[in-house]
Amino acid sequence: MQIPQPYLLFLGDVTDPLSAKTAKGILQWRPKMCTGQLRLTQETVSLGITDLSLAEARERGAQTLVIGTANAGGFIPQSWLAALQEAIELGFNIASGMHQRLSGFPALSNAANIHGCQLYDVRHYDQPLIVGTGKPRQGKRLLTVGTDCSVGKMYTSLALEKEMNRQGLKAQFRSTGQTGILISGTGIAVDAVVADFISGAAEAISPDFTDHDWDIIEGQGSLLNPSFAGVSLGLLHGSQPDALVLCHEVGRAHIRHLPHMSVPSIESTLEANCTAAKLTNPNAKFVGICLNTSAIDESDALALCRQWELQYKLPVSDPVRFGVSTIVDKLHSI
Predict the structure, then answer these.
(1) Which of 28, 76, 173, 229 is deepest in the core (most CB within 10 A)?
(2) 48-98 confidence digits (pLDDT tens)
(3) C-alpha separations of 80 from 47, 55, 75, 93 in Å
(4) Start and end of every D-glutamate N-acetyltransferase-like C-terminal domain (predicted)?
(5) For the chain, how many helices (H) and strands (E)?
(6) CATH 3.40.50.1100 is right for the domain spanning 7-121
(7) In the CATH hierarchy, which fold is given to the domain comprising 140-331?
């Protein structure tokens, strides 16, 4: 899918700042495509950018109203529907990462048809895909992988894209999850793809290219997570990565939501991912490790990075605290 930009970020009536993480992510990584924010109440959380009405945002060129919040269950509240309906009538497309589909509301679907607007349910993917082929493709690719889910693969991917472009390597972020799609405006939520087609979806996300240097592919799940290894393996095969970056959260006690499962070792994670990646790219190799060190203070985090660099013979950094320049330095020679 290709979501028209720029965006008006819709915050609805949520009051929990954590609920606005999608909108915050879009604003952090793509500020130039954010026209402003729309809040339904004065108590609604703010991103610190301009409050705009729907009409004002249209006058400033906004093309898509993006639902920038999340809630338990991923449903669209009834209290939002009037604003969403008005947006469509003013010519806005609407994009949502919720589980509940925009297209499941007949009034919104009918209005979109009448006004020539699109409803983008980015967590879902209904277009035809083919199975992966493993055929070599032009261009270089980097895939982020993890010791577990939610360890910073999207953040690391975007940090790498930014630093690579800063260093003169033309890179493009390729999103595979709903928040990443809203940040980039394009992509496929691979956790919504039928299992047989995950590697084919990865091939479609990053086809042949010659107009830039690298595609940075956002990883999902973890190859050693018993719940979500399937999507990780499909991405490893379909991405055909030349380079891999491992993401890990320091201090995590067990696999997320599975207290009976220990987080796998760094050594076993490096080995398993490299072995799987070599099926479709025999030259795949790790170029770095990115850590979420928020559980320890900065001096201990820096010491840990230096210790792991010696232990694993790879650049190691926390992309939030220390950036990713040492990892990107290695990409110039690939």
Answers:
(1) 173
(2) 999 999 999 999 999 999 999 988 778 999 999 999 999 999 999 999 999
(3) 19, 17, 11, 15
(4) 131-328
(5) 11, 11
(6) no
(7) Rossmann fold (3.40.50)
